Input
Amino acid sequence: MNAMRNWKTTAAGLLNLALVVLTLLQDSGKATDPTTIGGIVTGIGLIFAKDGDKTGVEPKSKS
Output
């Protein structure tokens, strides 16, 4: 599992979720707003995503 292993995408996801929480603290009526729901899904997706410079393929060992 890649959750919180890639600092760049994790930082972006946490920042995104923090902004959503701040929005909800200001106006809790926006909880069902599609933009708010999209922000939550995006934040969670970024936390579980890989960085763009990672291929996901393990390097070949030299034998």
